[in-house]
Design goal:
Blueprint: E1 2-9, H1 14-28, E2 32-39, E3 47-48, H2 53-66, H3 68-71, H4 89-97, E4 102-105, E5 125-129, H5 166-178, E6 185-188, H6 191-199, E7 207-210, H7 225-232, E8 239-244, H8 256-265, E9 270-275, E10 290-294, H9 299-308, E11 311-314, H10 323-330, E12 335-338, E13 353-356, H11 361-372, H12 377-392, H13 394-410
Parallel strand pairs: 1-2, 1-4, 2-3, 4-5, 5-6, 6-7, 8-9, 8-11, 9-10, 11-12, 12-13
Helix pairs in contact: 1-13, 7-9, 8-11, 10-12
């Protein structure tokens, strides 16, 4: 079977990394997979990117043109919002010329594909949802809004009070064309996002499966703590609390504010390690020493950093999956997170980590203390690793996708 994985990027960000990990796993277990991306950042010959300077420049500007309706707003959304304005017949032609047996869509925002374009793909489609955008009126993170179940409008992400606003126009376009995608199999990376997709007006008639993001557990594995700390020049005798993500301290969805409150409340003497951001000019006012690891671009460095720390805190308000949590657990480092959205599929409360009451910083602090002072810490660490081997291992996940692909092709 010729599989074509389609993604805006091939790296940088949770969704592109998940798509590329699946692509690699499919190749490793003997399947014919190619990956088509809008912006190629790697030199992997199995990944197809723009083939000319003109195409690269055009793709670059499409990202900005597609965002013009949002940039012109007086009050900008606090999180990513996609309009899906520009048609891309050239990319559809490129997909169809490759003649895949199946097209597997992942994150296709950033001006890559409009919802309307997808119906022109000739091969059967599987579409993995990495955020809310495919079934909402444009928001990638909807938080507690449920207007996607109807027709959006008066969008809280846009600070809009008008029923016939931009979000309604976007979702009505999607609803108009969703009838052509009823045979597409939708995959949620967590039970939470699968449920949201099935409850949405856009995908209510589609089959929705749940398959987690894959993880190479041979790369993400426990490394001796002393060695890992030496490599990052972290103190050997301190207990280390790790927090990180892309734009970890500036993205309000990642929960840095809630974490800072929790760190003021914990009873354990710790140092803090932050990755995904460099040290700011004005350091946060915390009663703990902070070590900044900066932005890490490769899996090996991440695995070493996870292994160097005693607990990883993932205080996100919303995660479709929560790849940081699964990566940390695969390295044997327990996770403390809020009991919400996709993180519920990864962390098992007081078994391989701690799930705090959303969005209670006091309970988050309790969870950090519970992990760090637990006599059963080696068992918690082992159980964290064991779950990743059983559930998130990339070959196991890839085989689940192959079964879905076969069903899609036979429809």
């Amino acid at each position: 079977m010729k599989i074509l994985i389609v993604s805006t990027y091939d790296s940088h960000g949770g969704a592109p990394r998940a798509a590329r990990r699946l692509h690699s796993a499919l190749l490793e277990i003997g399947h014919e997979s190619k990956m088509l991306v809008f912006q190629k950042l790697s030199d992997d010959y199995t990944i197809i990117g723009p083939t000319s300077r003109l195409e690269r420049v055009t793709n670059f500007f499409r990202i900005y043109i597609d965002a013009i309706p949002i940039k012109l707003r007086r009050k900008k959304p606090e999180s990513l919002f996609s309009v899906g304005l520009l048609p891309n017949a050239t990319l559809i032609q490129k997909i169809n010329r490759l003649k895949p047996d199946l097209v597997h869509l992942h994150w296709i925002g950033g001006g890559m594909l409009r919802f309307e374009d997808i119906e022109n793909i000739k091969a059967p489609i599987v579409w993995t949802l990495h955020d809310n955008s495919p079934f909402t009126g444009g928001c990638h993170i909807m938080w507690d809004c449920e207007k996607y179940k109807d027709s959006c409008g008066a969008c809280p992400r846009l600070f809009s009070v008008k029923e016939n606003d931009l979000s309604r126009w976007i979702i009505q376009r999607k609803l108009k064309h969703s009838q052509y995608l009823q045979k597409a199999i939708i995959v949620g990376v967590s039970q939470w996002i699968s449920r949201c997709a099935k409850e949405s007006k856009v995908f209510s008639r589609n089959r929705v499966n749940t398959i987690p993001n894959p993880l190479n557990t041979n790369i993400y594995y426990p490394i001796p703590k002393q060695m890992a700390r030496n490599l990052f020049q972290l103190p050997q005798e301190r207990r280390l609390v790790l927090f990180g993500a892309i734009s970890s301290t500036s993205d309000i969805n990642k929960g840095f504010r809630e974490l800072c409150v929790a760190l003021d409340l914990i009873k354990t003497d710790v140092d803090i390690v932050i990755f995904g951001a460099s040290a700011p000019e004005a350091l946060p006012s915390l009663p703990h020493k902070i070590h900044y690891a900066g932005i890490l671009y490769d899996d090996q460095s991440l695995a070493i950093l996870y292994s160097a720390c005693d607990v990883v805190v993932v205080p996100s308000r919303q995660e479709s999956f929560g790849q940081t949590a699964s990566e940390a657990m695969s390295c044997g480092t327990p996770v403390v997170a809020f009991a919400t959205t996709g993180l519920l599929d990864i962390v098992d409360h007081k078994i391989n980590g701690y799930l705090a009451e959303p969005f209670n910083s006091l309970d988050l602090a309790t969870g950090i203390d519970w992990i760090l002072n637990n006599e059963q810490y080696p068992d918690i660490s082992r159980l964290a690793r064991d779950k990743c081997l059983r559930v998130f291992n990339d070959h196991i996940v890839a085989k689940k996708y192959v079964a879905i692909y076969q069903e899609a092709v036979l429809q």
